[in-house]
Amino acid sequence: MQGEIIIIAFVVITAIVFGLVFYFSKKAIIKRKLKTSELKRLSSFRSGETAKIVGKVEFVDSPLIAPLSGRKCSHYHVLIEQERSTGKSSTWDTLVDEERHSKYLIKDGSKYAYINDSLLKSYIVEDAKYKSGFLNDPTENMESFLSSKGIDTTGLFGFNKTLRCKEGILEKDEEIAVYGHGEWKEAKELGLPEKYGQVLEITATGEEAIYLSDDPETTEENETSLNSSRKHEVKRSRYRK
Question: 138-145 long-range CB contacts below 8 Å, 24 or more apart?
Fold first, then answer.
């Protein structure tokens, strides 16, 4: 009986630990922030407000080429890990954790927003995954990218290292959610082509970063957003009266 209690207690404690690790993970924090933040359309966003916007990616500069998939994008995140065995167990050590972006806009209707701050927390859905290992050669892109980092894909005796690679990107016209502080400025002030007219500059608020994700759960209108939008509309209708 005592043995069963110990096993149950161990299982419960393990579940709690894993639950806490997930709850406080970067991915969970970003998704939670975006899912619970007030959503504003760019057409009704006023200078000085802080809220979430949802729009589609529009390239300004020449697009980046994602290193593993070769896709055109405005933003990519690549994570490459190597499995290392230590006796009876094994761990995954990070070899590369790289995030890069070019200049791009977020389009909502006829209006545009632009992220103009380096204090950014992003979660890009990893929709391209690759592996290499015993009898499983790495792709040419994997080899080329790792070589550029001074990392060999083979180990002792020329055998392939056990690697797992994940890549997430923001493509043209992809819908994303962004939370931050907004100020309307002329495109020229922001170093953007004048044809865009007035653009909402998105920056961090004090010590709080900008939050960004392309996860569909973050771009949906949740109950919090709907309630906030309704309250905003009520205030506007009262003001008009």
Answer: 138/163, 139/68, 141/67, 141/68, 141/69, 141/70, 142/68, 142/80, 144/67, 145/67, 145/68, 145/78, 145/80, 145/96
